[in-house]
Amino acid sequence: MMKFVFGFMIIVSIFFGIVSGNIDEVSNAVLQEGVNAIELSLYMIGGMCVWGGILKIADKADITKMLSSLFKPIAKLLFKDLNFNGKAYKAISMNVIANILGLGNAATPFGLEAMKELEKEEKTSGTASDNMVIFTVLNTASITLIPTTVAMLRLKHGSPYPLDVLPLILLNSLISLTVAITLAKIINSIRSRK
Amino acid sequence: MNLSSYILPIFIGLILIIGLIKKVDVFSEFIEGAKENLKVGVEIMPTLIALMTAIGMFKASGGLELITTTVAPIIHKLGFPAECVALALIRPISGSGGLAVFESILNDYGPDSFAGRVASVMMGSTETTFYTIAVYYSVTKVKKTRHTLLCSLSGDLTGFIFSALLVRLFFVI
Predict the structure, then answer these.
(1) Which residue, A16, A51, A77, A153, has fewest beta-carbon neighbours within 10 Å?
(2) Which residues in chain A are closer than 8 Å to B168, comparing Cβ atoms?
(3) What residues contact A124, with CB distance under 8 A and at least 6 apart?
(4) Can you tell me whether residue B126 is helix, strand or coil?
(5) Helix, strand, coil percentages for chain A (3-state, nearest 5)
(6) Across the interface, do A58 and B19 touch by the CB < 8 Å criterion?
């Protein structure tokens, strides 16, 4: 899938850049975006290393075990045939907790670890497993108690009540997550029946 | 002062205190964990470079703008603020792009206008879908992501539609 998205986007951009006279900007983007990507990676890797370190401590002190048992009832609804004592589940639960606490930068490293462990545990080769799909979909919906960026920007632009949209944000996240997960579950069950 | 400035340090502090009580070698465990994630970070670099180049080229070519201006009038008829169409289109693709559009909506219409509130709800309740999917799968050998993108985008679309509905419902404007 990615090969089409990637190829199509670049070809369309070049064609459109020539037609619209923006080819200078397109050409600059080619040179600049790689640098931007490395810059972004450096920021991310810094955060990821700190969180990897903290998680390792939490893991050795059995804190992750504690937290993951809190999330288990919900996880049992979401994930089918997952080993709830395995490394994958531990990383999944830490990822969800970091997301809920609004620690987006912390959630990514846990999420990546979860994907690696899911791949190992479910022995998928080349094709995503049902649980991988559910987990990624879960992460493309944003479930956060306090969406800091939104609140900060609203405050910056002079809103007297920057937090008054919070209940709506949470409600909206839950609605869209429910739709996405339900759809994924339905497709999963159709395919497994075949 | 905001509450979330407390969450992070307290979270870390608690972990360290419990770790020390349980006699964990917190320093060398930290180093070990940091080392593992350094490797993961380097692994996702090429994916980021590829994606950001493609998206950057598309934005620079004016393609995104053209789509936005074409689609906006139709969407506006459906009761969705036209100003937020650009946000809905760019939000799943680019984190920094979404932030820039969000910022300009707050600036032009004010945070407590209809468009401002809808944009706030959209921004807070959705994610950079394409980026998340690409990065998450990039650490695995998976080539076929099956229905991941379809389900995620349905979630995003639901989120966009409901952001306007909910704001209409809860704030009388």
Answers:
(1) A77
(2) none
(3) A118, A132, B140, B142
(4) strand
(5) 80, 0, 20
(6) yes
User: B40 to chain A: which residues are within 8 Å by CB?
Assistant: 48, 52, 109, 112-113, 116
Residue A33 maps to a domain: yes
Question: Tens of pLDDT along B99-156?
Answer: 878 988 898 899 999 999 999 999 999 998 988 998 899 999 998 999 999 999 999 9
Count the domains in chain A. 1
Q: Report ipTM for this prediction.
A: 0.82
Q: pLDDT tens, A42-63?
A: 877 887 788 788 888 988 898 8
CA B131 to CA B59: how far, in whole Å? Answer: 16
> What stretch of H or E contains B147?
none
Residues of B in contact with A5 (CB under 8 A): 54, 130
Residues forming a β-bridge with A161 = none
Q: Does B100 touch chain A (CB under 8 A)?
A: no
Q: How far apart are CA B169 and CA B162, in angstroms?
A: 10
CA distances from A177 to A9, A131, B149, B154 (A): 28, 15, 13, 9
Q: Are A112 and B133 in contact (CB under 8 A)?
A: no
Q: Which of B106, B139, B166 sits opposite A115 (nearest CB)?
A: B139
Residues 6+ apart with CB under 8 A from B56: A29, A30, A32, A33, A36
Question: Do the chains contact at A180 and B158, CB–CB below 8 Å?
Answer: yes
Residue A189 to residue A10: CA distance in whole angstroms: 36
Which domain covers residue A137, as residue numbers? 28-193
B15 contacts A63? CB cut-off 8 A: yes
Domain membership flag for residue A99 = yes
Cβ-based contacts under 8 A for chains A and B: 344
Within an 8 Å CB–CB cutoff, is residue A31 touching chain B?
Answer: no
Tell me if B12 and A54 make a contact (CB, 8 A cut-off): yes
